[in-house]
Amino acid sequence: MTLIKSISGIRGTIGGGPGDNLTPIDAVKFAAAYGVWLKDQSQKSDLKVVIGRDARLSGEMIQNLVVSTLIGLGIDVVDLDFSTTPTVEIAVPLENADGGIILTASHNPKQWNALKLLNERGEFLDAVQGAKILAIAEKEDFNFSEVDDLGAITKNDAYFDIHIDEVLNLSLVDAETIRKAGFKVVVDGVNSTGGIAIPKLLEALGVEVVKLYCDPTGHFPHNPEPLKEHLGDICDLVVKEKANFGIVVDPDVDRLAFISNDGEMFGEEYTLVACADYVLGKTKGNTVSNLSSSRALRDITEKHGGTYEAAAVGEVNVVTKMKANNAIIGGEGNGGIIYPESHYGRDSLVGTALFLMLMAERGGTVAELRASYPAYFMGKKKIQLTPELDVDGILKAMAEKYKNEDISTIDGVKIDFPDNWVHLRKSNTEPIIRIYTEAKSQDEADDLGEKIIAEIKKIAGLG
C-alpha cells in the first residue's frame, strides 16, 4: 500500500492507515491544503473550484470528501461528476474558476486514486506551488468557515458536450471531411469515462463506433495502462469488425493509443508523431516532447522545417518548454497530445480529431501510415523500488559509467548512443525506476533494457 505526495497532487492506494495510503483522512487533508493555498494566494472573496472524476470504484467516496472539504472552507464547487482530465482542464477557464481537482490515478490499477491539482488556467501546478501545498498539508493549519460562509455546490453534467464542441471548433478540424471518409472505429474505454467521451465525439464526427469496455463501472477489464500486452481484445476486434482502426484511452482520457487496421499496435509513441505530422503540414512551427519520447517526433518536425526540443518528464515541464519554444503541438510519448489552440493539457479527444483529419486527407490505411514514419522501436521496463535501495546513488553511478556518451541529467539519466538511447528515472506516480529504451529494432531496444537492468542490479547488489 502506497501514498505518493508530489508537486502535482497526492496519489495512493485505497484502504489501510492514514499517511501510508490514500485514506479519507488523507483526501480531506490535501483537499484542505489546496483550498487554503487558493485562499492565501487570491485577492478574491469568492473562490470557485471545478471537480471531476473518472469511473474508479473509489471515485464517489473521494469526490464526496473533497467537495465537502472545499465547501467547508467557504469555496464554491462546480461538480462535473463523471469527467475526464482534459474536460476538467477546459472547464476551469470556461467557468472562470480559480482552480480544479481531477480525481483519477490515470493509468494506475483500480486500487489507486489521486487528487490532481490545477491552477486558474486549468493547467497543472508548478513545483513552487505544489511545494507550498505540501507544506500546508504537513502543518495542518486549516481554518474552516462558519456556517453562514460555507461554499455552494453547482452540478454541471454538460461538459462532455461542451468539450466536444470545443474540439469541433478547432481550426484544423472539419467534421464534414471526416464524415465523408466513412470511418469505422473500435473504442476501448477500459470501463471508465473515456467510454462516454470518445464515442460521443466520434458520433459527432460521423464515425461508426464499435464499443468495447465502454460501460463506466470502474471495473477495469484489463490493466488500464494502454500497452500492447494489455490490448489483445481490441486488436482482435478491429480485425473481426474490419474497422479502419481502434482507439484506446486510459481511465482519465489523457493518453491515446491507436490499433492499426491489421490488429497491430500503431505504437503509443507514434500517436504524437502522427498528430504533429498533420498539424505541421498545415502550420509551420516547433514541437516539444519529453526525454523519454521517440526520436521520430524530432525527425518529423525537422522534415516540416520546425525545431524540436526535449523537456523533463511530466506534463508541467513539457508545457513550460512548449510556451518557451512557441511550440504549436507537443506532448509525451505515452500517447499524450497537447495542442495549445485548444488548451495546455494532454487531450485524447483533440488527438482523436487530429488523427481522423490526417487519415481523411491522406487516405490509405493506418498500417500504411505507420510504415511511412521513421522506424524506431521502444522498450519500457521497470524495477520495483524497496526502501533500502539508494536510487539517487544508482543513477549517479550509471551516469559515471557512461560519462563518455551524450548524457542528460535534467531528469534522471538519459544516455544517447549513436543508434539508440536509454532513459532511467524515478517515476512520479509509482514506486519504481522506469527504464525506457529506443532503437532501430524491437530486439535491440529490449536487449538494451535488459543490459541496463542487469547493470543496475549489480550496482545495487541485487545479483
What does this structure look like?
The protein folds into three domains: 3-157, Alpha-D-Glucose-1,6-Bisphosphate, Chain A, domain 3 (3-Layer(aba) Sandwich); 162-371, Alpha-D-Glucose-1,6-Bisphosphate, subunit A, domain 3 (Alpha-D-Glucose-1,6-Bisphosphate, Chain A, domain 3, 3-Layer(aba) Sandwich); 377-460, Alpha-D-phosphohexomutase, C-terminal domain (TATA-Binding Protein). The strands form four sheets. The protein has a seven-stranded mixed sheet with strand order 1-2-6-5-3-4-7, sandwiched between helices. Strands 16-20-19-18-17 form a five-stranded antiparallel sheet, with helices on one face. The chain is built from 15 helices and 20 strands. By secondary structure, the protein is an alpha/beta fold. It is 38% helix and 22% strand. The two termini are 26 Å apart. 52% of the residues are buried. α6 (175-181) packs across α12 (348-362) and α9 runs parallel beside α10. The radius of gyration is 22 Å and the shape is globular. The model has no long low-confidence stretch (mean pLDDT 94).
Number of strands: 20
CATH superfamily of the largest domain: Alpha-D-Glucose-1,6-Bisphosphate, subunit A, domain 3
Strand order of the largest sheet: 1-2-6-5-3-4-7
Strand residues, percent: 15-25%
- How many separate helices? 15
The residue ranges in which pLDDT falls below 50 over 5 or more consecutive positions are: none
Second-tier CATH architecture of the largest domain: 3-Layer(aba) Sandwich
CATH class of the largest domain: Alpha Beta
| CATH third-tier fold name of the largest domain | Alpha-D-Glucose-1,6-Bisphosphate, Chain A, domain 3
The pLDDT mean sits at 94
Q: What does the main sheet amount to?
A: 7 strands, mixed
Judged by helices, strands and strand pairing, the structural class is alpha/beta
Overall shape: it is globular
Distance between the first and last residues' Cα = 26 Å
Rg from Cα: 22 Å
Share of residues in helices:
25-40%
Instruction: Indicate how many domains the architecture comprises.
Output: 3
EC number: 5.4.2.10
Keywords: Isomerase
Protein name: Phosphoglucosamine mutase
Organism: Meishania litoralis
